[in-house]
Amino acid sequence: MVTVETQSRDLQATTIVIVGGGPGGYEAALVARRLGAEVVVVERRGLGGAAVLTDVVPSKTLIATADWMTIAERASELGITLSNGEFPGQGGTAPLAVDLGVVNARVRGLAQAQSQDIRTRLEREGVRVIDGTGRVESSSRVVVAGADGSETAIDCDAVLVATGATPRELDAAKPDGRRILTWTQLYDLDVLPEKLIVVGSGVTGAEFAGAYNALGVPVVLVSSRDHVLPNEDADAAAVIEEVFRDRGMELVPRSRAVAAQVVGEGDDEHVEVTLADGRVLTGSHVLMAVGSIPNTAGIGLEEAGVALSESGHIQVDRVSRTTVRGIYAAGDCTGTFPLASVAAQQGRIAMSHVLGDTVVPIRLRTVAANIFTTPEIATVGYSEVALQAQKSKYSVTMLPLARNARAKMLGMRHGFVKLFFHPDAGVVLGGVVVAPRASELIFPITLAVQHRLTVDDVAEAFTIYPSLTGSIGEVARMGHHRRLD
């Protein structure tokens, strides 16, 4: 039985239904409320979505623990010892150890706390939150299925779909939550794997491979390409690959996994991963990091006339409109950039557009992204591959981080700063930072790209000495050309 609930509103009021409570959904809700709309958010799993509950917040919390282990390994060169005179993490009688049960309990606790904080914020702002699964009937009606089987129809003036994505699964490697895992299931482990096989060397695979390796787990990373992180800056990916090898990680390039199965019983139980060439890799656990699929099936989009791509992603324009008037979409379900920051921006733009506020269409060229390996890789603007593909004129300056005084003090050996800029006008077109906390260092370059600053503009700004940002100023100075009138 379907009950119909019509929102009461005057001529000035607008009702928005948002399907999905991740970054695209909850940020949109806040904007819509500030602009005076009545807002309903429908979420089936928990506010914050995958970004908070199973993806960004949990993974980066785990990686933060791994970072501490990496820092501790440099203790000896910094002159730090334990009270018994031994160096931490160097194989003495008092080595560092990780209790994964405690780590993952903290991870899950932080994720739930963040989710609850979002719910509290939305409710305080007057957003109505409904727990359930939304189905879009049209731009003016969404039907919500509750856990008890009941259905409620909500009439509205516009709909925002922000349903995110879930890990892609291989038919011959179905996750069991015990030994064959997706990245959403890693946080249920209480004991470190004896040997972890990671299938997929993209961002997710590289991040988890690096994190578990830093936690002391032997890791095998299977890549279908020649190198890890094949879609990233080649110099940056080479640094990460070098670090992985130096830390003892086994890399298996140009190999595609076709199956994974659990074999044996009791103490002999393990996983076998079969590669396309017939080789079989063995380990205690396998992480399948082979991409994601959008959560767009079975929620009424195609029946409502919303166009989807062949991959199932919702087609949107730069102000988040779909092909149906009054239906908008944001986040990973759109196949734009799978970043929480992009999802949030798409959601904000959608609400500004539907509610008649000033709208600045999204500019993907100015999106800053970060890969949380050790060291991190932060990028913004045009990549070198993109510049070459469009046959743009550009120049490059690059400076190894090891030359930076602050980096020497902190024991940093790997990393660099790189800028792409127009050879004549000097306008900064993009940049790459490879360093610990590169996510904190990319912002000056992001400002330069956003506001079309020149390398001279960046070079003339003061930096602290000693500081890692000093390398950004220096690499900009390297791009100066004397101009004669």
UniProtKB/TrEMBL annotation:
Spell out the PANTHER family in the cross-references: MERCURIC REDUCTASE (PTHR43014), NAD(P)H DEHYDROGENASE (QUINONE) (PTHR43014:SF1)
Q: Which residues form the Pyridine nucleotide-disulphide oxidoreductase dimerisation domain?
A: 368-474
Name the needed cofactors: FAD
- Where do the annotations place NAD(+) binding? 200-207, 291
For this UniProt record, give its keywords in alphabetical order, as a comma-separated list. FAD, Flavoprotein, NAD, Nucleotide-binding
Q: Which residues form the FAD/NAD(P)-binding domain?
A: 15-347
Q: Tell whether Flavoprotein is among the UniProt keywords.
A: yes
- Binding-site residues for FAD, renumbered to this chain: 60, 134, 332
Q: How is the cofactor bound?
A: Binds 1 FAD per subunit.
What protein family is recorded? Belongs to the class-I pyridine nucleotide-disulfide oxidoreductase family.
Keyword Protein biosynthesis: yes or no? no
- Origin: domain of life: Bacteria
Native species: Flavimobilis soli
Protein name in the entry:
Dihydrolipoamide dehydrogenase
Q: Name one GO molecular function term.
A: flavin adenine dinucleotide binding
